[in-house]
Automatic annotation (TrEMBL):
Gene3D superfamilies: 2.70.98.10, alpha-1,2-mannosidase, alpha-1,2-mannosidases domains, GH92 mannosidase domain
InterPro entries reported in the protein's UniProt record: 6-hairpin_glycosidase_sf, GH-type_carb-bd, GH92_a_mannosidase_put, GH92_N, Glyco_hydro_92, PNGase
SUPFAM superfamilies on file: Six-hairpin glycosidases
Coiled-coil residue spans: none
Signal as UniProt keyword: yes
Protein name: Alpha-1,2-mannosidase, putative
Signal peptide extent: 1-22
Source organism of the structure: Lentzea albida
GO cellular component: cytosol
Residues in Glycosyl hydrolase family domain copies: 293-743
Length: 745
């Protein structure tokens, strides 16, 4: 029997050692919900449970009631709020984001005018100081300059809030004031039962976007709510537009989906006042009906519960969810960055079904998530990923068989480009999410990729949210690329690259199901048809075969939120082929060197269209391309540099929009020293782990590293066997085991 290396014996012994406290491990102390709340991260700090339907968080204002401080309602530098809204979407980029439904504002003073008439948020809003604010996993507290305080916690579908007032306390229900506005809203106040109920009919995600957003100024969901109080209502009233209606118990009316003067002064809501200096409120929500909202509240929050009670349970829920990955070692800051990234990863997808029903999820930012988030979700929580995949299938059926690239709740919004559902579903299945109707999903996705749909010839919403999910598919199949002049898409070259990735995903999924598809395999190589050998870059091409000129690799012509310099690398499934057309692996690696570093040798961290942009998704896989080119040390160096330079503690801790957990998922993978080799496989690139020990509980995987915080991997072994290439086979995810890396430098 061959003796194991001493270092391997040591680390395997460590892997087998289980701390006595492991069963009650609680890493919520490292979660800082304020990370990403500044600098465009667009996260929110409010109370939420893993995958929660309700997320109770501030709606900030900069003096315009038809707008907000930042996308998704909260900006760290906007320290004035007009309410605490019941729904949010993490990290979406379109200002003012999505949801932000039913802001509830604790107000001090008499109600003498309509809150909707307060168009500049001068009267019915309040400043606050971050010194009086505390955000935790599952709980949010703040003291307002008005003297009121709010202490909030939640379950999956219900919330509880304790509000205090120095004098004359009221709660305002701004039922129509969702972030994007509303088509309609209604409220009913019942003083006899100390309750308020109502709903808002809304949608319009990205409806203010300049590149086609007006097509999204439409409705696609209704949120119902019911609230009850532990103190008697002593005064009440409603408002519609500028009219205050004291003593009224019902009101209705929406705001529309515009902004500024076109919407200012419109809307409806109601208020309830209390003689006591404090009031506890319980609130339940549902996307189904008011009765369902009442049942959700009754099922999840007992009548005598307190915020402390629910917050303790919320913390336990988060502690359990965060045990999906248990890391040891590292500094307190490194753990804070890691566990907050993991927390952000588990903010979505979001439950949309009611208590007692099969769990189904909504919210899918496909163009973003398929590059990191959906694979990580399947790796860490395969049960959730399975239900997510089934949910997307069912949503597509309700949408006439169309898998939309950006789904808000269950509404198709068409935002971004490509057909990301295919790699998302294929990647989740590969990573171990198997409990869904995968054959039906494959059949439906294959049909979308091969049978032209009338929407594919529409320019509605173009370029930023074109309705066609496979735009001008007949022409795409005839030419072998998306012609920039007739594609009805955001950019012909980007569409070709996205569809090549999607077709590879369908080929991979079909092969796993015993249904190989040679045509999809062939089409996965069509990225070559928009690679111009004369310029050495991806380039938009016209239907007549000519290239779109003039060409500049720093330009985004033909691309979506990225330049040719970035998109040229977007061939994760065929890096060897890409290297070949570039002149070979050595030439490709030299080009990567110039992509990641400026002329002075410093790292590129955004703001230069010719170089790597860690703030957006099209190129986030590129640090691992060095592995494919035979230079893994550069992958290790680059991944570690980006993790160190653009991820940090504090509000500015994310490099860009979190995009439903995608940027956070990138960091989790990077910290583990792993990353999907392609979006639709379970092969994993290897780089250098940042922690000496990490355990992925769902897969029984332990990742050990000696020599941390060293950057360079001198040797990697899986279950004692040396790994000869810088990636792991799919059997690693299937079987689990111990991965040991010896680091230096």
């Amino acid at each position: 029997m061959r003796a194991l290396p001493v270092f391997l014996v040591t680390v395997l012994t460590a892997a087998l050692a289980t701390p006595a406290s492991a069963a009650v491990r609680d890493d919520t102390r490292y979660v800082d919900p304020l990370i990403g709340s500044a600098g465009g991260g667009n996260t929110y700090p409010g109370a939420v449970r893993p995958f929660g339907m309700i997320s109770w968080s501030p709606t900030s204002t900069r003096g315009d009631q038809t707008n907000t401080g930042a996308a998704n309602g909260y900006a760290y530098d906007a320290t004035r709020v007009r309410g605490f809204s019941l729904t949010h979407v993490n990290g979406a980029g379109c200002h003012p984001g999505a949801a932000g439904d039913v802001p509830i504002m604790p107000h001090v003073g008499e109600i003498t005018s309509s809150p909707t008439a307060d168009t500049k948020d001068q009267v019915f809003a309040s400043d606050f100081s971050h010194a009086d604010e505390k955000a935790e996993a599952g709980r949010y507290r703040v003291g307002l300059k008005s003297g009121a305080t709010a202490d909030l916690s939640v379950t999956t579908r219900a919330g509880i809030g304790e509000f205090t007032f120095p004098v004359n306390g009221s709660l305002l229900f701004r039922t129509s004031n969702s972030l994007n506005g509303s088509e309609d809203a209604d409220i009913t106040i019942d003083p006899a039962t100390n309750s308020v109920s109502g709903s808002v009919l809304t949608g319009a995600f990205c409806g203010r976007r300049a590149n086609g957003g007006t097509n999204n100024q439409k409705t696609y969901y209704r949120l119902h709510f019911t609230a009850s109080f532990d103190r008697p209502i002593t005064n009440y009233g409603t408002w519609v537009d500028s009219e205050l209606r004291p003593g009224s118990t019902t009101a209705s009316g929406g705001e529309g989906y515009l902004t500024g003067s076109a919407r200012a002064g419109r809307g409806s809501g109601g208020y309830v006042s209390f003689a006591d200096s404090s009031v506890r409120m319980r609130v339940g929500i549902s996307y189904t009906s008011l009765d369902a909202a009442k049942r959700n509240l009754a099922a999840e929050i007992p009548k005598r519960a307190t915020v402390d009670d629910i917050a303790k349970e919320a913390r336990k829920a988060w502690a359990k969810q965060l045990r999906a990955v248990e890391v040891d070692g590292g500094t307190a800051d490194e753990r804070t960055i890691f566990y907050t990234a993991l927390y952000h990863t588990f903010l979505q997808p979001n439950v949309i079904t009611d208590a007692g029903q099969d769990v189904r999820y909504g919210n899918f930012s496909g163009w973003d998530q398929y590059r990191a988030h959906t694979q990580l979700l399947a790796l860490l929580a395969p049960d959730v990923a399975s239900d997510y995949a089934q949910s997307l299938l069912e949503i597509s059926r309700k949408n006439g068989g169309v898998w939309d690239r950006w789904v808000h709740i269950t509404g198709p919004t068409h935002v971004m480009t490509g057909d990301p559902s295919a790699p998302a579903v294929a990647g989740m299945y590969a990573m171990g999410a198997r409990d869904f109707d995968v054959n039906a999903a494959y059949d439906s996705l294959l049909r979308q990729a091969t049978v032209p749909h009338p929407d594919g010839l529409s320019d509605k919403g173009c370029p930023g949210q074109c309705e066609g999910q496979r735009p001008n598919l007949a022409e795409y199949m005839r030419l072998g690329y998306a012609p920039h002049d007739t594609c009805h898409c955001w950019g012909g070259a980007a569409e070709t690259l996205e569809d090549s990735v999607a077709d590879q995903a369908l080929a991979d999924l079909g092969r796993r199901l015993g249904r190989p598809n040679a045509e999809m395999e062939r089409r996965a190589g069509w990225w070559r048809n928009t690679f111009n050998p004369e310029t050495g870059h991806q380039q938009a091409r016209k239907a007549d075969g000519t290239w779109v000129t003039p060409f500049n690799p720093a330009s985004d012509q033909g691309f979506a939120q990225g330049s040719s310099a970035t998109y040229t690398w977007m061939v994760p499934h065929d890096v060897q082929g890409l290297a070949e057309v570039m002149g070979g692996p050595e030439t490709a690696a030299k080009r990567l060197d110039g992509f990641f570093k400026r002329a002075d040798g410093s790292w590129a961290t955004g703001g230069d269209a010719l170089r790597y942009d860690p703030t957006n998704e099209p190129g986030i896989h590129t640090p691992w391309i060095y592995n494919e080119l035979g230079q893994p040390r550069k992958t290790q160096e680059t991944v570690r540099a980006m993790a160190r330079l653009v991820y940090r503690t504090g509000p500015f801790g994310l490099p860009g929009n979190d995009d439903l957990g995608t940027m956070s998922a990138w960091y989790v993978f990077a910290a583990l020293g792993l990353y999907p080799r392609t979006p639709s496989s379970a092969e994993l690139h290897v780089s250098s782990p940042m922690f000496p020990k990490a355990r992925i509980t769902a897969k029984n995987i332990t990742v050990l590293a000696t020599g941390t915080p060293g950057i360079y991997v001198e040797e990697t072994r899986w279950n004692g066997r040396k790994i000869g290439q810088p990636w792991l086979p799919e059997s690693f995810v299937e079987r689990g085991g111990v991965l040991v890396s010896r680091l230096e430098g």
